[in-house]
Amino acid sequence: MANDRLWWEREDLCYRDGRLNFGGRELAALVEAAGTPTFVYNAARVRDNLQRLRAALLSQGVEHDAFYAIKANRYAPLVTYLKLLGRCGIDACSPAELRYARQVGFEEAEISYTGTSVSDSDLDCLQRHPGVHVNCDSISTIRRLGQRCPGRRIGIRVNPELGAGYNEKLRYAGAKATKFGIYRDRFEEAVATARAAGMRVEALHFHFGSGYLEDSIEVLDQVLERVGALLDAHPEIRTLNIGGGLGVPLTEGDVAIDLGRWAAIVARHVVRRGIRIQVEPGDYLMKDAGVLLVRVNTVEDKARTRFVGVDAGFNIQNLAAYYQTPFIVAPLRRVAGAPLERVTIAGNINEAIDLLAEDVELPALAEGDLLALLNAGGYGSSSSSNHCMRGEFREYLLLSQE
Questions:
Q1: Is 22 helix (H, G, I), strand (E, B) or coil?
Q2: Strand locations in 219-335, DSSP E?
Q3: Which domains does the chain have, with CATH numbers?
Q4: DSSP-assigned letter for residue 80
Q5: How many Å apart are CA 36 and CA 114, to the nearest integer?
Q6: Residues of 7-31 as b/e, b for ≥16 C-beta within 10 angstroms?
Q7: Cβ–Cβ contacts within 10 Å for residue 151, how many?
Q8: Which pLDDT tens digit goes with each residue over 76-117?
Q9: Is the overall model pTM greater than 0.90, yes or no?
């Protein structure tokens, strides 16, 4: 019934006759064949997320290119799908990611490389890929790249000294010094270092945090104001990479970012300057396009807390443990109006931080029940480990049945 619809449900992720459906498939039926733990990704949701972002920019007359941040999820069928879709390039941050993108079929000109603490071997790889655009986030990188690639066109990553994100752990800039980018007080030195090496600075890059929502959109406006001053001082720079970082609602009280307002803010700063932008959505494309399916193996009360143990841990999907970003927990079968109880979802790793969801309200669960952790599509499998030798999982890509 409509009144029983949960706040996070949408057309491609909802209960139908009490069974959780995703991308037009009943997840419980998929588990029968796949087992658990299993990541499931909806290709159509990824496509629609990318198209919605691009349409917002086009509506404001913003010339742009999109580069998918492959660190968010490098599942080969998914990355291949994006290549065949033909609407974005790849944002890479390591030589292995660069080579991976090339192996999937992306051309050098479709790859933007933004690394940090870049080694000489990293730079040797970049030298072998002259068509890849490189954003340098330190003067050291500029100097050493210039020794190898005089005449190369580059971008400079700047630190805007303002940050926003899901929480403090996910802010890449701010009052506290971070390792990312070149600060304003050394920007001219960075440009001079590039010129001394015969390199041309053709782009600026910034990324101020991961997971900013509507309540933080003013930070983007302030960052663009600061970066705009650098662009005005260097009219030869015609491209601005605004990074990624757009978030999705994780709790019922979160307000989704208004892409129309977001694009209008970008347009106000770049259109009058004739600047082309680049954007690097990774988690924004993938987070709500993926779920992690797990099976309950233990239900037990301990010290007035009901723990529900499952067959996956923070080594499979670490966002809750490392960054305190919550998952939405959804039973694969749901009875409308069933009484709720407060539980904590515990993983199977022998570490105190291995709690996937704390103090959440769910219908009564029994051992053997199946759950879906929602918003698990980004920074899950790509960040996984074999800690406690429990690193085994499966991944499936759902393609449209249209």
A1: strand
A2: 239-241, 276-279, 290-302, 305-310, 328-331
A3: 2-42+288-398 (2.40.37.10), 89-280 (3.20.20.10)
A4: H
A5: 35
A6: ebeeebbebeeeebbbbebbbbebb
A7: 10
A8: 999 999 999 999 999 999 999 999 999 999 999 999 999 999
A9: yes
